[in-house]
Design goal:
This protein has 2 domains: about 5-125, Aminotransferase class 4, branched-chain amino acid transferase, N-terminal domain (D-amino Acid Aminotransferase, Chain A, domain 1), CATH 3.30.470.10; about 135-290, D-amino Acid Aminotransferase, Chain A, domain 2. Strands 7, 8, 9, 10, 11, 12, 13 and 14 form an 8-stranded mixed sheet that branches. Strands 2-1-6-5-3-4-15 form a 7-stranded antiparallel sheet. It starts with 7 loop residues before the first strand and ends with a strand. The protein contains 7 helices and 15 strands. By secondary structure, the chain is of the alpha+beta class. About 25% of the residues lie in helices and about 30% in strands. The radius of gyration is 19 Å and the shape is globular. The chain has helices at about 30, 55-70, 80-90, 160-175, 220-230, 240-245, 280-290; strands at about 10, 15, 35-45, 50-55, 100-105, 120-125, 135-145, 180-185, 195-200, 205, 235, 250-255, 260-265, 270, 300-305. Helix 4 links the parallel strand 7 and strand 8 (about 180-185). Bound molecules: 4'-deoxy-4'-aminopyridoxal-5'-phosphate. 4'-deoxy-4'-aminopyridoxal-5'-phosphate (PMP) binds near residues 165, 218, 220, 255 and 256.
Length: about 300
């Protein structure tokens, strides 16, 4: 999201203009990256004149898990965070697709091991597609290993884990790729710097399990359900070898920011002759219809913002 377009931010219980939303440089969040966060997409439906937050409850639940795992003390209950989310998004009156950052950070003047005081901000801002549909992405397998549950768990959505993502992303771009795919400490495929991965092989949709050093992705879970229920595909969570990436029939990345993006090649091995695959395209269509509130059978995945 381009931060210049953010108007009002909810910060510690108050709505403030974006340029007034300040955090002290001496805080542990500033010095050590001590924060946990979520990014929630909301989709604008022109016909319904409605903005729909996608899987809000799941994001709030994951935020609670991150708070717990980092032993942050937070003074807001889950319902209060949801109410603050609604207040922040409504206050900006967006009529376009947006992404909302919810960030719980270590405030005050403690250290990296303090548990509080924590602050929270909620910042909604316009956000379109990351990549154009017909383009897709060219990936490499990263020379960097994905962090793991014995050191810094990728299950926790926190600023600090993105420094591992950063190394992989910058290396990939430097070497002429769009993004990277990490292997984990066991040498199996884990995820991309900011998204999860699926591959199609022999008619089945495969994805690494939640124990493969990945974030517990909300989009991944949604797509697994849709692939099974809507496309009647066999969906299998299992370890994936690096060479399986090269011979996949098709493959895609998914995530809140990424949504669904085809992988056109891995380490310059073309997939599906370098074109987006059929299953990817079908899932993409189904996903966007649901996210935008056009498929009324899945309205319970959405939270309408305006009443
Ligand atoms: N993995 C990583 C490392 C991510 O940053 C993201 C984006 N949040 C994902 C996977 C996808 O998760 P979600 O679908 O919940 O956005």
């Amino acid at each position: 999201m381009s931060s210049e377009k953010i108007k009002k931010i909810w910060l510690n219980g108050r709505l403030v203009l974006a340029h007034e939303a300040k955090v002290n440089v001496l805080t542990p969040t500033c010095q050590f990256g001590a924060n946990v966060f979520e990014g929630v997409r909301c989709y604008w439906n022109d016909e319904d004149q409605q903005l729909y937050a996608f899987k809000l409850k799941d994001h709030l639940k994951r935020l609670q898990n991150s708070i717990k795992l980092m032993r942050f003390e937070i003074g807001f209950a889950e319902e209060q965070i949801e109410a603050a989310f609604m207040e922040a998004v409504k206050a900006n009156s967006y009529q376009e697709d947006i992404e909302v950052r919810i960030n719980v950070f270590l405030d005050g003047s403690g250290s990296w091991y303090s548990s509080g005081p924590t602050g929270m901000f909620i910042a909604p801002g316009p956000k379109g597609r990351l990549y154009e549909k017909e383009k897709g992405v060219h990936c490499c397998v990263s020379s960097w290993e994905r962090i793991n549950d014995r050191s810094l768990s990728p299950r926790v959505k926190m600023g600090a884990t993105y420094m591992n993502s950063r190394l992989a992303q910058l290396e990939a771009v430097q070497n002429g790729y769009d993004t990277a795919i990490f292997l984990n400490d066991l040498g199996k495929v884990s995820e991309a710097p900011g998204s999860c991965i699926f591959i199609m092989r022999n008619g089945a949709l495969l994805t690494p399990p939640l124990t493969a050093s990945i974030l517990e992705s909300i989009t991944r879970a949604a797509l697994m359900e849709l692939a099974e229920n809507e496309l009647k595909l066999k969906v299998i969570e299992r370890d994936i070898d690096r060479t399986e990436l090269y011979i996949a029939d098709e493959s895609f990345l998914c995530g809140t920011a990424m949504e669904i993006v085809s992988i056109l090649s891995v380490d310059r091995f073309e997939l599906n002759q370098g074109k987006p695959g059929l299953i990817t395209e079908k899932l993409r269509q189904i996903f966007f219809d649901i996210a935008r509130g056009k498929n009324k059978r899945y309205l319970d995945w959405l939270t309408p913002i305006y009443n």
